[in-house]
Amino acid sequence: DAVTFNIKRGEILGLIGPNGAGKTTCFNAITGVYRPTSGSVTFDGAPIGRIKRHQITRLGIARTFQNIRLFGEMTALENVMVGTDARHHTSVPGALIRSPRHRREERSAIERSAALLHFVGIAHRGEEKAKNLPYGDQRRLEIARALATEPKLLCLDEPAAGFNPSEKSALIELIQKIRDDGYTVLLIEHDMRLVMGVTD
Questions:
Q1: How confident is the model over 67-79, as pLDDT tens digits?
Q2: Is residue 91 part of a domain?
């Protein structure tokens, strides 16, 4: 109840608290999973508490989840390509007949997705099914898919869950790299060492 915070462009902000404090609920309100019953959520000066999830994604908010949500039977590259759909403009009929616009967007999606796999450090996993990837690479893949939506704000919900110390160190480097690439990051994490090591 009564949570209030602001996040500045280019900032890494940590949202901390004990289990059950409402951190993920806050994420769900920001990303349109839940509609707030009171108060407001504002993004880039506009209220977003009553709009649909896909509209929030198009405005520039993306997230990852505590429990990884990948398409297990699809390759890593295909999973990231799903994220690029948020920026496509081809109609359903255009996709069905493979219009020139659809083909251009598809080529662009493949190139962008491959670049993001490289960015998060798993370019060599592109043709592997998501379900066969090591746990840490699945986490990186979920981040790549979120980045594929071209967000202004990236919400990471416990991205280090299940990580060993070396994986956590690598994650800190990745989050800083994401910020250095121009993204704003809102982070939920229980590991206070990680939070203090990466947030502004």
A1: 899 999 999 999 9
A2: no
- Residue 53 in domain: yes
Q: Does 4 map to a domain?
A: no
Provide the H-helix boundaries in 4-155: 23-30, 53-59, 76-84, 92-96, 100-119, 135-147
What distance in Å separates the CA atoms of residue 177 and residue 51, rounded to the nearest whole number?
Answer: 31
Q: Cβ-count burial of 88 within 10 angstroms (0-12 exposed, 13-18 middle, 19+ buried)?
A: middle
pLDDT over threshold 90, residue 126: yes
Q: What is the pLDDT of residues 165-191, one digit of tens each?
A: 999 999 999 999 999 999 999 999 988
Task: Compute the distance between CA of residue 84 and CA of residue 186 in angstroms, rounded to an integer.
Answer: 21
- Taking the C-alpha atoms of residue 19 and residue 94, their distance in angstroms, rounded to an integer, is 46
| pTM of the entire predicted model | 0.89
Residue range(s) defining the domain that contains residue 147: 12-74+135-198
